[in-house]
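User: My collaborator sent over this chain with a note saying "see what the structure looks like." That's all I know about it. Can you take a look?
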Amino acid sequence: MTLIDGRRDHETRPDPGGHLDAIKYWLVLVAFTAGAFIAWRSHAILPPKLFLDEFIIRRFISGELQSDGPSSYGTTGWLYRVTGLGSIPDLFPLLAFLVFAGAIVVGVGWRNIAGMSFPAIGLTAGSLLLGGVYLSQYSKEFFVLPLAILLLLARRSWKLEVAWLALALLYATHVRQYWFLVIAIYLALRFVIPALRSAWWLVPIVLVGFLVMVIVFEVFLGTSLTFFRTDINNALEYDRSTQIDDVLPGDAIPVQWLNGVLVMLWMAFPVWMIFSGDLVQLLAGVFMAVCWVLVIDRARFVVGRAGPGVLPLAFLIAFLMVQTAFEPDYGSYLRHITPQLPIFLALFAATARRGRDEHRPVATSPAPAGQGVLR
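Assistant: Without extra context I'll predict from the sequence alone. Here is the result:
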C-alpha cells in the first residue's frame, strides 16, 4: 500500500528556489576555481611578504636550519619531511588548497549549500579565496587543517572528539603552546552552551572568561595578558598598518581585563580596516566582520540544546578569546584563522533554515480527510 497525497499541484508548479540554489552552487564553484588558480600561481602573483614563514620552514625542511630544542618551525619542517610533502614544492600549494576545500565540504556538506543564506555563500566564496592565499605555501597552518577536519567529524561521535583532543594536545605541546588555552576554554564552553537558556548568557560568560585568563597569566605565567602580543610587536620589524595594540594603557588587572574585551571586539569588527582606504584591508575587514556577525546571530539557534552547532560555536569563541592575547597584527590573525574557516561555515550550514528544520523534532498526525487515500 502507498499513501497518495491528493494535492498534486506541487508536481507541476515550478520551484522558485531552484534557480537561486543553482546560483549558490555556481558561486561556490567559481570561487573554488579562482582559489585553485591563486594557489597554483601564488608565488608569481602574491606579494613576497606573505611567504616569510615559508622561507624559514623550507630551510628546516632542507636541513639548513636545525633546532636544538622545542621549535614550532622545527616541528613543522620535520612534519613536512616525514610526510614527503617537503619534496613536492611545485605541487604542494595546489594540494594544500584542495585539502582546505575538502575541509569546507566536510563542514558544510555539498547538499547543504542550497540551504545556506547568500551572506553565508559569500563567506564560503571568500574562504576559498583566502585559502588560496594563505595555504598555498609551506606553513604551520596546513597542519591545523587535520585538526579542523577532525573537529567537524567529531560532531557525530564523542570518540572522534576525544581523538581531536589528543591531537590538539600534541599540537599545543610541539607547535603552538597557546592551544592549551584554546582547548581549556573550548571544553568549558562545549559543556556550558547546551545548558544555556539564552544566547545572551554568552556575554557574561566571555567576560568572566577574560577575567580568569588575566588571573592565570598573572599567577601562573607572571606576566600580563597581552605581554606576548606586545613583545612581538616591539621586537619585530614589519608593516605596522594592521598592528593590534591595547586600547588602554596600564597593567592593572581591571585594565588588562577591559583591554582583552575591547581587543576581541576590535578583531571581530575591524572598523579601522574598513575605513582605511586600502582595498585589501577593506575586503578583509568586511569579510571577518560578516563572519562574526553571523556567528552572533546564529548562536541563538545553538544554545540550550545538543546539536551540530555546539562544537563549532564553542571552538570559535575559544579561539578568538585566546587570539586577543597573542596576535600581533591583523595579517597574522587572518593567516591563523584561515584554516578555521570551515568551522565557521559548518556553524552557518547547521543553523541555516533548512539545517534547523532537519534537526527539529517533527510531530506526526493523521492526514486530514480528503487529502490522502490508501490503495
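A starting point for your reply to your collaborator: Confidence is low (pLDDT under 50) at residues 1-14, 361-375.
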